[in-house]
Design a protein that fits this description.
Chain B: Keywords: Cytoplasm, Phosphoprotein. Chain B: This is Malonate decarboxylase acyl carrier protein. Chain B: It holds the Pfam family ACP. The complex is a heterodimer of chains A (298) and B (104). Chain A has helices at 14-21, 40-44, 83-99, 118-137, 155-162, 179-186, 196-203, 205-210, 222-233, 243-260, 266-273, 286-294, and strands at 28-30, 55-62, 65-72, 103-108, 142-146, 165-169, 216-218. Chain A is an alpha/beta fold. Chain B has a single domain, classed as Ribosomal Protein S5, domain 2, CATH 3.30.230. In chain B, strands 1-4-5-3-2 form a 5-stranded mixed beta sheet, with helices on one face. In chain B, helix 1 runs parallel beside helix 2. Chain B contains 2 helices and 5 strands. Classes of the chains: A alpha/beta (298), B alpha+beta (104). Chains A and B meet through loops of A and strand 3 and strand 5 of B.
C-alpha cells in the first residue's frame, strides 16, 4: 500500500473515521451537535464541554447493509465516558435491539470512566456493558474497532471484550488498567509506563492478535478498518453467551494464566507461544504477522 | 472557564444552511458550530474557553473574521481548550467553508 493514499485511523477524528468507514454519504447522525447538550457536570467544574460530549452516534451503511455506529473522540478528555456520552451509547445499543441492524460498529477510543463525572460515569459504563450483552442476545453483532490514540482501557477495555469481536490495528491498545495506573499502584519495578515499546508489547494490537484477544489485525488505515469489519461481518452468525460457553471461556482463561503467569514481557509470551524470533515481532508488518500467527503450533 | 458573548455587524451570508461543526475540544484546539441566526446583518458568537482573561484577544480575532467575511445571519458557538489565535482563525475559516458547502 502506498503511504500517500493511506488515511491513518490513529490520526483521524471520530467524525473522519465514520466518514471513511461507512458507504459515502450514508451516515445519518442521531443527536447532532446543534441539538445535543454538553455535559452539565463539566460545566459545574468550569470546564468547556463538547457539543457531542465526545461520542458520535448514528446510522449508516456498510457495503449496502444498515449498521448503527458509535464513535468515541479520543482527543476530547481522552474519550472518557461521562453521563451524556454513556447515555448516547446505551440509547444506540437499545435501538439496535429494536431495529435489528446488520451490526453495531463501536469505534472505541477511550481511557474508560470520565473521573470528573464520578458515579455518573461509572454507572454509564455498567449500563453500556449490559446494553452490549442485550444487543448480542437479540442477535445483533457488536463489533469493536480499536486503533485510536487512547486505545480501550478501564471500563471500555471490559466493554471491548464483551463485544462479539474486536478489530485492531498495531497502534491500538487494549487492556484493563492503563500503564500509568499499574505503575502508580504496583511500582515502576512492576511496570514502567514510560517504556512505550513495553506498553505496546503487552497491550498493543499485535500482542492481542497473537493471543486471540482480537479477531482481526488491520493496518492503521481507515479503508483497512472498513475492509476488516466487512470481512468479519460477511457470513457472521451472532452467538450470544450461554452458561456453557462462559464456563468454557473461564477454563481457557485459567489455562492461559497458568501458562503465562511467569512472563514479564510480551517477548516471553510470544516465545512460549512458539514464535521462533520474538524480538522480530515488533518489526513485522500486518500481513507478515498474520502469516506468522497462521504458522504457529495450535 | 470563561463565557464570552459577541455581536458583530457583518455582510449578510447569501443562504442559510444546515449546521456545520468543525474541530475537536482537544488540548490547544477548539470546536466551532455554525448555525443560521436571526438578524441577517449580525454575526453572533458565543465562546466557552478554558483560558481566562483573553476576552480582548478573542474580540480582536473574531472582529477581524466578521469584518473580512460575509457571515451576517449566522450564530456561531465555540468550545475552546486553549487554542492560539492562529488556530482559531484557521478553524473559523474551515467551519465557514463547511457551512457554505452545506448550502444547496
Amino acid at each position: 500500500m502506498s503511504l500517500s493514499i493511506r488515511h491513518s485511523w490513529f490520526e483521524a477524528t471520530a467524525r473522519q473515521r465514520l466518514a471513511g468507514l461507512l458507504d459515502p454519504g450514508s451516515f445519518c447522525e442521531f443527536l447532532p451537535p446543534a441539538v445535543a447538550q454538553p455535559s452539565p457536570h463539566l460545566a459545574q467544574l468550569e470546564l468547556p464541554g463538547a457539543f457531542d460530549d465526545g461520542v458520535v452516534v448514528g446510522a449508516g451503511q456498510l457495503g449496502g447493509r444498515l449498521v448503527l455506529v458509535a464513535a468515541q473522540e479520543g482527543q476530547f478528555m481522552g474519550g472518557a465516558v461521562g453521563e451524556i456520552h454513556g447515555a448516547k451509547i446505551v440509547g444506540l445499543l437499545r435501538r439496535a435491539v429494536a431495529e435489528k441492524p446488520a451490526a453495531l460498529l463501536f469505534l472505541i477510543d477511550s481511557g474508560g470512566v470520565r473521573l470528573h463525572e464520578a458515579n455518573a460515569g461509572l454507572i454509564a459504563i455498567s449500563e453500556i456493558m449490559r446494553a452490549v450483552l442485550a444487543a448480542r442476545a437479540a442477535g445483533v453483532p457488536v463489533i469493536a474497532l480499536v486503533g485510536g490514540s487512547c486505545g480501550a482501557f478501564g471500563g471500555m477495555g471490559i466493554v471491548a471484550k464483551l463485544c462479539s469481536a474486536v478489530v485492531m490495528s498495531e497502534e491500538g491498545r487494549l487492556a484493563l488498567s492503563g500503564p500509568e495506573v499499574i505503575e502508580t499502584v504496583a511500582g515502576v519495578e512492576e511496570f514502567d509506563a514510560k517504556d512505550r515499546a513495553l506498553v505496546w508489547r503487552v497491550t498493543g494490537g499485535k500482542h492481542r492478535y497473537l493471543m486471540d484477544d482480537c479477531a482481526a489485525l488491520v493496518d492503521d488505515d481507515i479503508a483497512a478498518f472498513r475492509n476488516g469489519a466487512s470481512a468479519l461481518l460477511a457470513g457472521w452468525q451472532e452467538r450470544p453467551n450461554t452458561l456453557a460457553s462462559l464456563r468454557a471461556e473461564q477454563v481457557r482463561l485459567q489455562g492461559r494464566l497458568a501458562t503465562y503467569a511467569g512472563c514479564r514481557d510480551g517477548l516471553e509470551v510470544w516465545a512460549a507461544l512458539g514464535v521462533a524470533e520474538p524480538a522480530r515481532v515488533p518489526l513485522l508488518d500486518c500481513d507478515e504477522l498474520i502469516a506468522l500467527k497462521e504458522g504457529l503450533p495450535t | 472557564m470563561e463565557k464570552l458573548e459577541f455581536k458583530f455587524p457583518s455582510q449578510a451570508l447569501l443562504a442559510a444552511a444546515p449546521p456545520a461543526l468543525c474541530g475537536v475540544v482537544g488540548s490547544g484546539n477548539l470546536e466551532i458550530l455554525v448555525r443560521s441566526g436571526v438578524d441577517r446583518q449580525i454575526c453572533e458568537i458565543s465562546v466557552n474557553t478554558s483560558a481566562r482573561g483573553f476576552g480582548e484577544t478573542w474580540r480582536a480575532v473574531l472582529a477581524t473574521f466578521a469584518a473580512s467575511q460575509a457571515v451576517g445571519g449566522t450564530s456561531i458557538a465555540i468550545n475552546d481548550m486553549g487554542a492560539t489565535p492562529a488556530v482559531v482563525s484557521l478553524r473559523l475559516a474551515q467551519a465557514l467553508a463547511d457551512y457554505r458547502g452545506g448550502a444547496q
